[in-house]
Amino acid sequence: MFLLGHSCWSYLFSKATGRKLNVNLPAYLALLSGILPDFDIYFQPYLPHHTYTHSLIVIIPVVLVLTYFFGRLGLAFSIGILSHLLGDFLVGTIPLLYPLYHNFDVGLNLGIPSLADTILEAGAFGLVLVYAYRNGDYKLVLKPSRDSLLLGIPLFALVTLTLLFAGDKSIPLAELAFSRRALTVITLGHILLSGILALGVLQGFRWYLGNRRLKQMATVEASSAQPLG
Fold first, then answer.
1. What is the pLDDT of residue 175?
2. For position 216, what pLDDT does the model report?
3. Which residues of the chain have pLDDT under 70?
4. Sign of CA dihedral 100, 103, 105, 111
5. 33, exposed or middle or buried, with CB in 10 Å at 0-12, 13-18, 19+?
6. How far apart are CA 23 and CA 216, in angstroms?
7. If you count Cβ atoms within 10 Å of the first and of the last residue's Cβ in the chain, which end, N or C, has fewer?
8. Does residue 142 sit in helix, strand or coil?
9. Is-contact 62 185, C-beta < 8 A?
10. How confident is the model at residue 212, as a pLDDT?
């Protein structure tokens, strides 16, 4: 599954889990959690892609540690991480018990890109738009806030991981992105999601600049209020 599907499904699963557990997982963490297993791309060629970070032998201890230290918030975040394995299981395969069993790959292997993958990714993006409207996260791209600025984290991950993966595989990204109808739909989804996150980051900068201006004004007022001599 592409990063579009991973980030969107993790948002849906982790936010829904958080709601059941009465905790509010921030949108940037909900979007980021599903991308984390692909962070091995940052460490290539030292860490082979789609191996350790896609194995239950590694992921389960990570989930336990997160849940132990961060409680219900950590569990909701962990559900987003696990959704990555589910997505790859559906459209491809995952090395379930790597490195103990190097060749034990399991999955439905529906294909990527394929009609099934396109439906899963585009459908998840549509559901995210609806869910974000219902839970209020849409305000992050309309009003200045600190959490809006934090949307820069998943945005950075989406863009850099895509570029690094394409560069490592020597993939002509611009040519491939629109070479097939399925890829065109998924590419447009990536562009729209990145654009929405970028709008949120701009709102975050507005919050930062406004907050900084208020602090400067408060400092000036405090200094002028001090008695002379």
1. 64
2. 80
3. 167-176, 178-179, 224-229
4. positive
5. buried
6. 34
7. C
8. coil
9. no
10. 86
Give Cβ neighbours of residue 180 (< 8 Å, ≥ 6 apart): 113
Of 152, 183, 130, give the one whose Cα is nearest residue 11: 130
Give the domain ranges of the chain. 3-214
CA distance 24 to 16: 10
Neighbours of 128 (CB within 10 A): 24
Nearest to 89 by CA among 104, 106, 101: 106
Q: Is the dihedral of CA 161, 163, 166, 169 positive or negative?
A: negative
Q: What distance in Å separates the CA atoms of residue 26 and residue 15, rounded to the nearest whole number?
A: 8
**Using an 8 Å Cβ cutoff, are 142 and 203 in contact?**
yes
Q: Tell me the helix, strand and coil percentages in the chain, rounded to 5.
A: 75, 0, 25
Measuring CA to CA, how many Å separate 145 from each of 18, 119, 120, 202? 21, 33, 31, 10
The per-residue pLDDT for 166 is: 72
- Spatial CA neighbour of 95 closest among 104, 87, 86, 83: 104
State the Cα–Cα distance between residues 116 and 185, nearest whole angstrom: 12
Q: Could you read off the pLDDT of 45-88 as tens digits, one per residue?
A: 888 999 999 999 999 999 999 999 999 999 999 999 999 999 99
> Is residue 121 within 8 Å of 5, Cβ to Cβ?
yes
What is the reported pLDDT for 218?
Answer: 76
Element at 94 (helix H, strand E): strand 94-95
What's the one-letter identity of residue 7? S
Q: What is the pLDDT of residue 168?
A: 58
Are 57 and 51 a contacting pair, CB within 8 Å?
A: no
